[in-house]
Amino acid sequence: MESIDLLVLRTARDWLAAGECVLLATVARTWGSSPRPVGSMMALRNDGRVVGSVSGGCIEDDLIHRYTTVHGGNGLTDGAPEVVRYGVSADEAHRFGLPCGGTLELILEFSPSWQSLEDVLVQLDAGRLMRRCLALQSNTVTLEATAAPEQFSFDGQYMINTLGPGYRMLMIGAGALAEYLACMALFNGFKVAVCDPRPEYIETWAVSGVECIVGMPDDVVRDFAVDLRTCIVALSHDPKLDDLALLEALHSPAFYIGAIGSRRNSQLRRERLIEHFGETQASLERLHGPIGIYIGSKTPAEIAVSVMAEILAAKNGARLPRELSIASSKAHAGLPETH
């Protein structure tokens, strides 16, 4: 399952290629509480079909009614982009299902250029990060490659949205936990790869849609073209595999690096990396371990939920309170050395 942004752009392109009229809506600004963050996109077809989301559903219903039902689909063919706002009054917020005090501003692009969508998708599919700028007054779109993502912005004249290849996960170790975690990552739109040089593990891998890589983990991490949208998770329980992968990962721009293990094993790993491989307490600040948030998990499926929650928090820039960490929670409760 690919990311929702790529799905919206790809669907809009395909609809346009089939001769359909399309409206591309983007959340430009929000005030107060909002169901969807800025940059969220939705594509609306002339027959009322929708992909993506800009709210909890009520605003989508209003857009369908306003631009397809009332105008018979012709409401999608107007030229210049429009800026529309929902939830300014308490009555509107209630009507459209917005949280109390929430206000949402959308940019509506009518029949966006098929060629522009095709161009950006070609670049995204090639793994490039792209900066898309819409000039509302001239209704022109410019695309350029960029080295790092920037915050979505809209100043009333220009909408700038950084679009990137989907988030990726590289797992070291093809055991049961990795299979559950892979399923969760795929469901959340990650492109997933698993590395394991042990044939007895990699040859029994059962999750489809995952790239299986046979090789030494440090070489695989080095060749993986790790970027700011990559997370690396060591799950083999074998220091010879996990440590090598982590050494490479720690010097990469990955947004999340973590390793499975008990509190004791995690501490021993840190000591090994410092004593034998020249790492420091500062360089190990990025290393999560034990990984996951504390939910009392014991089975591989529950541990995968715990780990995926921590990864998503890192992806979304959410700072988790110390009380949710495995180590802190278990130490406070006096629990034994298991995950």
Number of helices: 11
Strand order in the sheet with the most strands: 12-11-10-13-14-15
Largest sheet entry: 6 strands, parallel
Q: How far is the N terminus from the C terminus?
A: 29 Å
Secondary-structure element order, N to C: HEEEHEHEHEEEEEHEHEHEHEHEHH
Portion in strands: 15-25%
Alpha-carbon Rg, integer: 23 Å
The percent of residues in helical segments reads: 25-40%
Describe the structure.
This is Cytochrome oxidase I. Residues 169-311 form the XdhC Rossmann domain. Residues 15-86 form the XdhC- CoxI domain. Pfam families: XdhC_C, XdhC_CoxI. InterPro entries: MoCofactor_Util/Proc, XdhC_CoxI, XdhC_Rossmann_dom. With 339 residues, this protein is an alpha/beta fold. The protein folds into two domains: 4-129, no CATH class; 168-333, NAD(P)-binding Rossmann-like Domain (Rossmann fold, 3-Layer(aba) Sandwich). It is 35% helix and 22% strand. The protein is built from eleven helices and 15 strands. The protein has a six-stranded parallel β-sheet with strand order 12-11-10-13-14-15, with helices on both faces. A five-stranded antiparallel β-sheet has the order 3-2-1-5-4. A hairpin with a 4-residue loop joins strand 6 (130-135) and strand 7 (140-145). Helix 1 (4-17) packs across helix 4 (114-125). The radius of gyration is 23 Å and the shape is elongated. The chain starts with a helix and ends in a 6-residue tail after the last helix. The mean pLDDT is 87.
